[in-house]
Amino acid sequence: MLGLCAEYDPSERVLTKILNEPNENISRLIKEIQAKTNRKLIVYVANFNHPLGGIHLVDVLPFEEILRTIGPVKEIDLLLNSPGGEINATEKLVTMLRQRYDNIRVIVPN
């Protein structure tokens, strides 16, 4: 959905940068996106090469910790790049987001 934001320029290929950058550059790219959208961004990128690379219940606690660090905001963006996963885990993550934020945008690059 970043492509639908007025502030986002698709020619910048920001999503491609995030998914292909070394870890040390990811924080910088996230900050750039947040500055353009004026929203916090959570990035969930699964390991497509691992058989358990999708969304699983073990992800709930780390996700909760991430949400606690964000602080009081009304809007949030979630970049989600995953081959799927457990429906119960996904439902729990969505519920956690809905309980905290009035407006949620999910960006699914693939």
Structural summary, described in words:
With 110 residues, the protein is an alpha/beta fold. The protein has one domain. Helices cover 43% and strands 16% of the residues. It contains 4 helices and 3 strands; from the N terminus they run ααβαβαβ. It has helices at 14-20, 23-37, 60-70, 87-100; strands spanning 40-45, 75-81, 103-107. Strands 1-2-3 form a 3-stranded parallel β-sheet, covered by helices on one side. Strand 2, helix 4 and strand 3 form a beta-alpha-beta unit. Helix 1 (14-20) packs antiparallel against helix 2 (23-37) and helix 3 packs parallel to helix 4 (87-100). The protein is globular and about 35 Å long. The relative contact order is 0.19. The model is unreliable at 1-12 (pLDDT under 50).
Structure at a glance:
By secondary structure, this protein is an alpha/beta fold. Helix content is 43%, strand content 16%. The chain has a three-stranded parallel beta sheet with strand order 1-2-3, covered by helices on one side.
